[in-house]
Write a structure and sequence with these properties.
alpha/beta; 9 helices; binds threonylcarbamoyladenylate; binds magnesium ion
Length: 324
């Protein structure tokens, strides 16, 4: 595929998806790389375009809860969470329905299926126009930073996908909270914008521990691999940046620095910081610095999800392997 189109027309994007092509589109969290979940050639092409290991399952995106529950077997807890947070930045991992048009490769052959109902108006319109479930991992090569702008997708997947549907910057900026609802338990698989507190408040009880038996109910496999890696090394909990480093600051007390500097939120607002995180890392990385000093982020509320992404990005990693 030689050319990747940058488009604004939802119907054109839906036509391409129905024809088995790969199309990136905005959601409220990050840009997703869409493919027809019922077309095995399209799903295989998606794994290849991302360089994603086939054992790391995908999230199926649908326009409403009814469509999500037609593909799965929802527990009462799952219904409670769907009522509280869909449409929105939450993914539920549920047992797959017995009969389903979703190709097995979409969920890496697992007996479970991850489903999500995005709130973004363009994503919703696209899902309605496509008229079929769409798998969509974050639209980045496996192991790299997630994209929050169409330009991020173009920069990393140009020539490997048919089109990018441009909807501007994504408002939440961090991937969905992934919640398992399996075997009567409800557990967090990936922290996100919907916090543990919010989930527990909706359920009116504490979350369960993720099950030990990973054979029967595997943890989000993508969470086991290194990812969110910028080219530059990250140095967390930094109090100042050295010469030659980039500085990712947070809050009003940022240290003075003459090199490339971005403050995630000068007022110390964690929601604003989440929305800016990946874009800031993309931008600092593009300056060519070999290291980025990251100021301390408070581990409360959405700070927990921000730190999850930063720690993964900072971890030692084998290059170009694994990741989501
Ligand atoms: O916000 C989001 O969730 C974005 C947008 C595009 O919707 N998508 C996204 O997809 O972040 P991806 O593929 O980058 O991350 C999906 C995560 C991975 O950690 C994967 O392992 C996990 O969900 N997952 C998917 N299906 C699963 C399943 N059946 N069981 C356990 N984990 C699953
Ligand atoms: Mg990802």
């Amino acid at each position: 595929m030689a050319l990747t189109l940058l488009i604004k027309d939802v119907d054109e994007a839906a036509r391409l998806l129905r024809a088995g092509q790969l199309v990136a589109f905005p959601t409220e969290t990050v840009y997703g790389l869409g493919a027809d979940a019922t077309n095995s050639k399209a799903v295989d092409a998606l794994y290849r375009a991302k360089g994603r290991p086939s054992h790391n399952p995908l999230i199926v995106h649908v326009p409403d809860s009814a469509a999500a529950f037609a593909l799965t077997r929802a527990s009462p807890d799952a219904v409670t969470l769907a009522e509280a947070f869909w449409p929105g930045p939450m993914t539920l991992v549920l047992p797959r329905a017995e009969a389903s048009a979703i190709v097995p490769a979409a969920s890496s052959g697992l007996p479970t299926l991850a489903v999500r109902v995005p709130a973004h108006s363009i994503a919703h319109a696209l899902l309605v126009a496509a008229g079929r479930p769409i798998v969509a991992p974050s639209a980045n090569p496996s192991g790299r930073l997630s994209p929050t702008r169409a330009e991020h997708v173009m920069a990393s997947l140009m020539g490997r996908i048919a089109a990018v549907l441009d909807g501007g910057a994504t408002p939440v900026g961090l991937e969905s909270t992934v919640v398992g609802c399996l075997d009567g338990k409800v557990f967090l698989l990936r922290p996100g914008f919907i916090t543990r507190d919010a989930l527990e408040h909706a359920l009116d009880r504490p979350l369960d521990e993720p099950p030990e038996n990973r054979e029967a109910t595997p943890l989000a496999p993508g969470q086991l691999e290194s990812h969110y890696a910028p080219r530059a090394r990250l140095r967390l909990d930094a109090e100042s940046a050295a010469e030659g480093e980039g500085l990712l600051a947070f809050g009003p007390a940022a240290p003075a620095h003459t090199g490339p500097t971005i403050n995630l939120s000068p007022t110390g607002d964690l929601t604003a910081a989440a929305a800016r995180l990946f874009d800031a890392l993309h931008e600092l990385d593009a300056t060519g610095v070999s290291s980025i000093a990251v100021m301390r982020i408070p581990e409360t509320g959405i700070g927990y999800a921000i730190l999850d992404r930063l720690r993964r990005a900072a971890a030692d990693r084998p290059r170009d392997s694994g990741g989501a």
